[in-house]
Write the structure tokens for this entry.
Amino acid sequence: MNRAICREALHSCGLLRPPWLARAFDHVDREAFVPDTIWLPVPDDEGLWPLVDRARDPEAWRRAVWNPHQSVVTQLNDGHTPPKPSAGDFTSSVSAPDIVMRKLAALHLDDQHTVLEIGTGSGYHTALLSERVGARRVTTVEVDEGLATTATATLKSQGYQPAVITGDGLLGAPDHAPFDRLISTASVRRIPPAWVHQTRTGGKILTPFGTAYSNAGLLDLTVDGDRAHGRFIGSSAYMWVRGERPSVTLHVPDEPTTRRSPIDPEQLLSGGHLQDFAIGLQVPDISSSHRSEGHTRKVQFVDEAGTSATIVRYADWWEEDAVTVWGPRDLWAEVTAALGWYERHGHPHITRFGISVDPHHQHAWLDDPSNPLGPQAVAGR
């Protein structure tokens, strides 16, 4: 695998149609922005993320770098994990070339636009932006000081000197605003007001977007004063912006209630990422995790406030005690109601959903902002 093979694959998929993207791909040396040690996002037989070391296996490293459809992980556990095969959470990566090109094409950049990038990472994406609008029109924000320092040095070595800010990307870059385009390389659950305020009317915000239930959408917003609205233009699974990572501390009652489940959990939980995303838009504060106790498989749901939890057994879901509920909300009832809504509406594609944001609220909708999602949709439609 090398640059030429990667380019051919991207071209064959129609991802280099904008002429500037093809030129940028040719001009920016992706290898310069990838560290010598990386993890692959495919677990080995022991459930660890394999490490590829350029010094030990340069061909494997190069194959990983130029794989058009797979990212390379550059940091685990916020940098606390040393370079070795490891478990843990991905906290920085160089995204796969295909999604990078898809996102940049969707931004509809012209060479006079000013751009705010959230999440500098290694700087590869920043360099591509700089190829289009010039580095002086690019501002990029990175929360991790070490990553920001390394990216700044790499960018400079490759001839790019954008404004690199170490800070919280959710706050944007007010001293450099306003911007014509804002693009995030990490996922959010709520559109920060600062992003809307710092983007010109008519400008675009393009960001991966998810819920506690499912992190899988690419959202394209158009700004109109202090408001923004737009649709999901496809699927996109990215790491969370650090300030948006779901985190729950449970403080539920000791005494639960029990009931049977109306459906087999497998029916819902094997429905795929598009189904999960549609459900998540209706129950955005509910997350799930799988548990095993001996040979018994279970799925647990918790709400973001930590006041409710529900556990469902798989094997005997029809039994009277298969569902155990703590707290005021029956989360399995909410999730199955969201599935029922999805089924009744004919499995709407992700591109029929959208988000509207105003100074006080954010809501998801189907087909039109006047058709909001949420508990009211599940109950009444």
In short: Confidence is low (pLDDT under 50) at residues 376-381.
